[in-house]
Fold these 4 entries.
Entry 1:
Amino acid sequence: MTPFSVRFKGGRDLNSTDQKRDVFVAIADPTRRKLIRLLAEGEELPLHELTNQFQMGRTAVSKHLTILKEAELVTNRKIGRETRFRLNPAPLQEIKDWLAFYEKFWNERAILLKNILEE
Amino acid sequence: MTPFSVRFKGGRDLNSTDQKRDVFVAIADPTRRKLIRLLAEGEELPLHELTNQFQMGRTAVSKHLTILKEAELVTNRKIGRETRFRLNPAPLQEIKDWLAFYEKFWNERAILLKNILEE
DNA sequence: ATTATACGACACCTTTTAGTGTCCAGTCAA
DNA sequence: TTGACTGGACACTAAAAGGTGTCGTATAAT
């Protein structure tokens, strides 16, 4: 193991580990959904303040935030000694689009059920 | 009366060990999303036919279907020697509701961005 | 009656996930 | 300057996830 293992996956630009996470995976974890909720309400929050809202340690929360960041659901910047996080809801659009496709199926189903009941 | 179990939102339901899976987790896996897609298009499909659509073995597909079933996204019944699966899109409503809450945030954000651009 | 198909139930393996604790470096406050 | 916050970077671990192969048993086909 090299001390600084640089791994670009597909010719990514920039320095940081831009792992490109699946949004579906990102929102699958309840802790991460709670983080999203907190950031939606709290505008911009530092790590330690977010950590206060959980029973787990700072490291764990930080990791969750990293995953959210990789899914681009969150951005962060350093202010003094703290790192403040902000929600970016845009990637949720993908979920919405995915759902939209199936919406017609549960409408069809509802109509079907209604017809059956009317017989 | 349908031969397979009818389910309601909060109500208890019939025989099996209903593990109650998180819908968010259920849709996090791409294989399971593809299964949902196939079942949406295919009405009612047996396991072996679903398995044909993947490179993995039958056992793996079956496990994914179990998870979908535990999330109540899928129902199944035995016809002769085959087990046929059917989509139940209803639980997707939970995802939709969850998204709806954040929709206002990305609208606010869009408005904010628009205002900035107009300056 | 025999053979092929479909699938549940296991046992098993590897990788990922979600958490921990420790160490070190900036930053702020006294 | 000293000392307390804040958090990044590891190293490590237990459990869950996602696969595999095999065996036994209904069912269907010949």
Entry 2:
Amino acid sequence: MTYLSPVSKKSSDHPRSGCPVSISLDIFGDRWSLLIVRDLMVRGFRRFKDFQQSGEGIATNILADRLRKLEESGILATAPDPGDARRRLYRLTTKGIDLAPALLEILVWGATHEQTGAPCEVISQMAKNREAVLAEVRRRWQNDDPTPILPWLGGPPK
Amino acid sequence: MTYLSPVSKKSSDHPRSGCPVSISLDIFGDRWSLLIVRDLMVRGFRRFKDFQQSGEGIATNILADRLRKLEESGILATAPDPGDARRRLYRLTTKGIDLAPALLEILVWGATHEQTGAPCEVISQMAKNREAVLAEVRRRWQNDDPTPILPWLGGPPK
DNA sequence: ACTTTTTACTTGCAAATCACAAGTAAAATG
DNA sequence: CATTTTACTTGTGATTTGCAAGTAAAAAGT
């Protein structure tokens, strides 16, 4: 009788090229991961329930799985809520906030080429002021400012 | 006996928010689509077999499926090879080449935060010269120039 | 104190998607 | 005209997903 070790078929087993794009997609190349990052980044979401009710219709088992994988890959970190021990708070790490440029370009592409719910005016302002938008996203992250960024359009208010 | 129409569960059926990021991820939010776009964009791949042998290990049924979906969503277009009727040639559309900024940011993120096979020097040059790199990618696309872009580093040669 | 509610999950299951191997049709090559 | 090449398709089992339901711990209500 032979024993065959249970050949685990985790996604990390697949042979991949060393290309950074390939490695990145191994981490967040799915339908949900970047939506969670987006919600953390620009909507100020911090709790499990926020993501669950984000309007994207993610199932709770998938959400829990993605939060765990994003934490494992160092994109976000969790901590218990000091004010309510039932809750866990999710925050982007530096590695996570560094996804802002990629997310912004994906946003601009989608708004440019697909019918989306985003007002064209807002998008073209964001596309024109990429650096300012990214600076504001980073500022909010550093200050732990959960205010959604959407009212902030196309340049710092004077 | 009641007949229930077979409720098709295509991914397009899922309820989604109108966010451009969400709609974009519905189109290319998987492990393979952006790798195909990358190969068309910077490696000059044109044929089925090129993608198959790209080193990422994509199965032929998945490759065929992704090429079809990318064509359906207008990111690439196919035509028979004028010189060999067995072949079909795949090319990016304008919509496809417009993914270049997103792809570049994903590349920079991956190279910055993960152990990849990309030399750091090359990546930092690309990150510093984003606009020049993107201009060169677009130039090659317009000229139908399939030369891989990798030897071209960090700025136009003088 | 105790019942109810909230929160962040886990579990079970059917359906969809995936990876892998093999097969096929059409066209080119020898 | 037999062989090879190309771009796929098909079959099969494994993995992942979507959906509904359940659960444990903590908070809130009475």
Entry 3:
Amino acid sequence: MRKPKIPEAAIKRLPVYLRVLEETAAAEIQIISSAELADKTGFSPEQIRKDLAYFGAFGTRGVGYDTILLSRRIARILGLHQGVHAALVGAGHLGYALARYSISRHKDVRITAIFDTDPAKIGTEIMGVTIRPMADLRQAVKDQNIKIGILTVPATEAQAAAEQLQEGGVEAILNFAPAKLRLGPNVFVQNIDLTIELQSLAYYTSASEEAAAQVVEETSSSIDS
Amino acid sequence: MRKPKIPEAAIKRLPVYLRVLEETAAAEIQIISSAELADKTGFSPEQIRKDLAYFGAFGTRGVGYDTILLSRRIARILGLHQGVHAALVGAGHLGYALARYSISRHKDVRITAIFDTDPAKIGTEIMGVTIRPMADLRQAVKDQNIKIGILTVPATEAQAAAEQLQEGGVEAILNFAPAKLRLGPNVFVQNIDLTIELQSLAYYTSASEEAAAQVVEETSSSIDS
DNA sequence: AATTGTGAAGCATTTCACAGCT
DNA sequence: AGCTGTGAAATGCTTCACAATT
């Protein structure tokens, strides 16, 4: 048993708690209740308590959670306390945006290597990190103990790039390319497809509502109950 | 009853089906089975059939789905058949990347207006769309019948920008700012927080595993069963 | 013979309700 | 008195298994 059985959804909420806790701690506030956390994050107090309880009892009954202590604990749970190295593959606009984001704002997940195929970009720097050719990828990932890969390459190149990351020993990939990656079971893949996000948003718009109703109407005949 | 009760998760899969169907249709293949769709998308055949069945019976038993017909139906369900207009707020690197993505690749969700506070950017163009000042936002959203807002502004400006989008009559917002938006019930908000994605990925890395175990160990005392 | 469409079962996640600490 | 931690109930989503259809 590798991981106990903590909902993936809960893991995704931890960084949100972390951010609020750090902000709160920075404001010199020492204690926060699940109700206050709920107000700031938009999740329910019960859910927050349950999420935290998966990892132990971090609060004080009748009081709340110590902001500094809890933020440290969450950073630890996520593995951010020691700084995780990430490689960015694809230095287009999206990659550039991510690199600036990540390199500047947090030290917890740091982009320490950047790769691209474009000879014009190779040798240039983003926030102090030199862009290198794809040929260097596998070895660099190994040498720099890089655990996370961020893929912002065109869909056609995604699979090949992902395989190189895998060979370098990456354990998780954040894939922005609209392509299904086929990798071994040791690499955790998280897909973010911006086109999907935009297109699915359209559904929640009046543009769709009637259309959907119409489609259902067109085809429904003997559907009841 | 506004929406029947179709899982949000199912809606998010529709654009994936759409993409594969369009690719398949473009390759002159007329029929595709749920099993083939499953192979190309990574979802299970049953799930695909169930998702589609929410909206009616689009396939032919013993045969499969007509690629062209089904892609049209999905586009319709999502409301993409008539083209949805979107406004981009914040023309930084991420905004720029999204604009290029969206304006070039698909006509279904089109960014037809871009706003920013930076005087140096105002008046310049991204892919043929002129960047305008925030003061124009509300009216432009109304005039251009814009239904979707894309927020790529700093967290501190997100709430104010979101309110302007809301006042302009936007029905859905894709929010990249790490801030909880407080808006009325008529605006559907989808958050994408790239920092969260990166930080939660760290959990699935060996950097965390021991750390998490350690935390649990530290605090677990009378937890059994 | 093949593949869809779908009730029912199975799982996972969220919410409820309250006991347990401080 | 107040707020956490947690079994139990409720809800939501996915998988199963098979009848229906071409």
Entry 4:
Amino acid sequence: MKYTKATNYALHIMAYFVKQEGKDNLSLQPLASHMNISPTYLSKILTQLVKANLIQSTPGVNGGYSLKKPKTEISFYDIIQAIEGSGALFTCEMNESHACHIEKIMKDAEEKMVNHLKEKRIYDIVLKMS
Amino acid sequence: MKYTKATNYALHIMAYFVKQEGKDNLSLQPLASHMNISPTYLSKILTQLVKANLIQSTPGVNGGYSLKKPKTEISFYDIIQAIEGSGALFTCEMNESHACHIEKIMKDAEEKMVNHLKEKRIYDIVLKMS
DNA sequence: TAATTACAGACAAACACAGTCTGTAATATC
DNA sequence: GATATTACAGACTGTGTTTGTCTGTAATTA
């Protein structure tokens, strides 16, 4: 369970999408200005969110990005996983008798974190602001 | 809250120390063979454990390493922190209105994980094996 | 004094991450 | 159908972190 800068961007981007829901497509350039990131870099993050089916994109003149998944159904975990992938972090390489026990405790710990992130919706953030 | 390879080594090393408690000092070379790491690299990890007061070292002919902290009082978190330091991972860099809310949820999630790791003792691993 | 041990710090290789650049594909408007 | 506008794909670079090695130094015992 990593938490890179890109993930941090993604969380803020999704919060913004939820806030803007119902309005026109958001296109890359304005979004980049608002987020204060370079458009090309932002593009890479958005593409990952598209592939995870959290947002959708339409090319062409009035194209851009918009929410795809219902705004109340998007958890923090969804967003994080969209960026980080399901990279197995806690993998065991040791071949000792106690190895799997150590690994298990680490996995349990991670699961506690993951469960928390699955319960929290990005929509909650928007609610707290209004 | 990182979990590097060095941390993984440290967990296994400490489990081994707990298992061997009461016996003579463990010196670098045999420990390295048992762990299947190079002695010099192992040395760096052990030194960090020494600085964290989890083990103690004595140089000289019959020297080596042995447990310092009581074996039932060593948590997973103690060991992880000895290696990773208290590196603040979830830091917020965005200057948006909802920034701190996102940060808070991430910190809460990490705390869930950390609490789990504080509750689990490395001694539990040894118990499960006997 | 000599052997044995741990310790310190510089060093290099490998990898991951952040961010850029260039070109391509799809859609709408005229 | 041509053109402008949009997103998409992939190579590329720079930087920082991690892993691991090498060399030499300090402390303790025999």
